[in-house]
Automatic annotation (TrEMBL):
It comes from Ralstonia flatus. The lineage of its organism: Bacteria, Pseudomonadati, Pseudomonadota, Betaproteobacteria, Burkholderiales. Residues 348-560 form the Bacterial surface antigen (D15) domain. This is Translocation and assembly module subunit TamA. Keywords: Cell outer membrane, Membrane, Signal, Transmembrane, Transmembrane beta strand. Coiled coil: none annotated.
Length: 571
């Protein structure tokens, strides 16, 4: 904020006013002054003259008052003194901010249709973030107004707007009275969908996942639910759902849905590395309009050092009850901990997603070939009807800080019905995220699995039994190295329990560190179980392609350090 006269003289005056700045002020305002005072901003410029420097020193009070007012300090005392020889001058700035202004009274005024909804007005007033006695800051004042308007617009009052605002500050008393006016406009209800951007795929795809009802009250969350349901379909790269820029009629206003379609042929690929199964290369081809009915043909191949996976399936679009049916077949080969497993699987799956809940009914046929180095080969098959239930309630699906993800599965097979051995299988997993402060996260994890059958489980397909150890289970141990140890080979078991606690400290928005403890067991006889524990530290990175973790874990029972790495890049 150099004066105009000083700015004009830049080109013609001698430029030799090099100097340093030292600011003596409380931390609450020191960073602000160091960033925004002209004396600080221009100290490294070579074209500042002595006159301009003197002007900035003499007007320091005005600048400080304007800056500290944004933090609630309206009566600061500021001095600036130029010291030192001509070749090493120092401007010493001293600021006493004075008392901080606090909020005394808040008045929120509402007009429009909301005046008939006293309960909603009361909710908005109670949720107003600046209360009596709190410090007044310009940033907080602006945010409170914006948040209140957004809350008003989120339910029923789509066209609400702020009509007035005033902050009356009494510097002598260090008090601020705040007043804001809002016009809610009319109450909106939802009408039929107005879908734009479709050319390849039928509109029934969108209609069948639409949870909205004509005539229901407008809700931003409800529109977001429709948008998420559309984006969850494989046919669309993007979807935007709103009521348009200027809906003319608030009664049954059309819901505008704008979609961007994927082309029918989609090819994706990627490379990665993990300490569990080594380096990986994967490819995927999808044809999204099989038989011109929007059936999805999906083929996948993933080649890793210790695992190879092939998949092919056909999925039909959701029906009018939001069920999605699919047929599939796969081959999965792993070679870990002295045991090679080849699993062949074919099946049918019916899935429905409603909000945060997903349910699936399956009928799968397994044919497994278990080839341990130190034991006899095991061939087993089973026809397994099953049910799975998942709850995903997190604030961010990619980088969650709050909420939980819960999965539970149950299945059964009967000997003689394409099955070698009768059994009931259950499996559950939970992951809980708890925010700590502004950035940190506490993560708790638990996992339970059981195969209930008479005698040994050798006749149950190996991939339906349990081994553990590795990046996603018990760090500090090799992948799937915890189980039945038979002559150096780790065989799958009937029972599984794992758990873990992790604290993540985020030093920067994208970078953090973690400390963790994992524990678990996999056994055929619960009375003979042996617990394996791992502790360690790690690095966390919120990369553009997703979360990446680099850990170093110590397996307490094996008394050995092991790295634990998981990363991948799609292209």
């Amino acid at each position: 904020m150099l004066a105009a006269g000083c700015a004009v003289s830049l080109a013609c005056a001698p430029a030799h006013a090099e100097y340093d700045v030292k600011i003596d002020a409380p931390k609450s305002i020191r960073d602000l002054l160091e960033r925004h005072l002209d004396l600080s901003r221009y100290k490294d410029r070579k074209d500042i003259t002595d006159d301009q420097l003197q002007y900035m020193v003499e007007t320091i009070g005005d600048q400080v008052t304007k800056l500290t007012a944004t933090e609630g300090y309206f009566v600061p005392k500021a001095t600036a003194k130029l010291d030192g020889p001509p070749d090493h001058r120092v401007v010493n700035v001293k600021v006493e901010p004075g008392p901080r202004t606090t909020i005394d009274n808040v008045a929120l005024d509402f007009t429009g249709a909301i005046t008939q909804d006293a309960k909603r007005i009361d909710e908005l007033k109670k949720s107003w973030s600046l209360q009596h006695g709190m410090a007044f800051r310009q940033a907080g004042w602006d945010k409170a107004k914006d948040d209140s308007l957004a809350a008003l617009q989120s339910k029923r009052y789509y066209a609400a707007k702020q009509t007035s605002s005033q902050a009356r500050v009494d510097p002598d008393e260090s008090k601020a009275d705040l007043s804001v006016g809002y016009d809610s406009g009319p109450a909106y209800t939802l009408g039929p969908l107005d879908v734009q951007g479709l050319s390849r795929y039928p509109i029934s795809i969108i209609n069948h996942v639409n949870p909205l009802r004509v005539g229901e009250d407008y809700s931003a969350d409800r529109l977001q639910a429709l948008q998420a349901a559309i984006q969850g379909q494989p046919y669309f790269s993007n979807a935007i759902v709103d009521l348009g820029d200027d809906p003319k009629n608030p009664v049954n206003a059309p819901v505008r849905v704008r979609v961007r379609e994927y082309p029918p042929n989609r090819i994706t690929s990627g490379v990665g590395y993990g300490t569990d199964t080594g380096a990986s290369l994967e490819g995927r081809y999808q044809y999204l309009n099989l038989f011109s009915k929007a059936w999805v043909l999906d083929t996948q191949a993933r080649i890793e050092q210790r695992r190879q996976y092939l998949f092919a399936g056909v999925t039909v679009p959701p029906d009018d009850k939001q069920y999605v049916n699919s047929l599939y077949t796969s081959m999965d080969r792993t070679d870990t901990s002295g045991t090679e497993t080849r699993s062949y699987r074919s099946g049918f799956k019916q899935t429905r997603v409603r909000g945060i809940y997903e349910t699936s009914f399956t009928v799968d046929f397994y044919y497994d070939d278990l080839r341990p180095d130190g034991a006899e080969r095991q061939l087993s098959k089973a026809l397994v009807p099953g049910f799975a239930w998942t709850r995903r309630d997190v604030d961010d699906p990619l980088f969650p800080r709050r909420g939980n993800i819960i999965t539970t599965q149950i299945g059964a097979a009967v000997k003689g019905v394409l099955t070698d051995q009768s059994f009931v299988r259950s499996y559950s997993r939970i992951r809980q995220f708890v925010p700590v402060g502004q950035r940190d996260i506490f993560v708790a994890r638990g996992e339970l699995g059981a195969v209930i059958t008479s005698g040994s489980g050798d006749g149950v397909p190996a991939t339906l039994r349990f081994r553990t150890g590795g990046t996603q289970s018990v760090r500090g141990y090799d992948f799937q190295s915890i189980g039945n140890d038979v002559n150096g080979s780790t065989l799958p078991t009937k029972f599984l329990v794992t758990g873990g606690l992790e604290y993540q400290r985020w030093f920067l928005p994208q970078w953090g560190a973690a400390v963790f403890w994992d524990t678990g067991t996999a056994t055929d006889n619960w009375s003979e179980r042996r617990w394996f524990n791992g502790v360690g530290v790690g690095v966390r990175w919120k990369s553009p392609v997703g979360p990446i973790q680099l850990d170093m874990a110590y397996g307490i029972q094996q008394k050995q350090f092991r790295p634990s790495v998981s990363l991948g890049i799609a292209f």
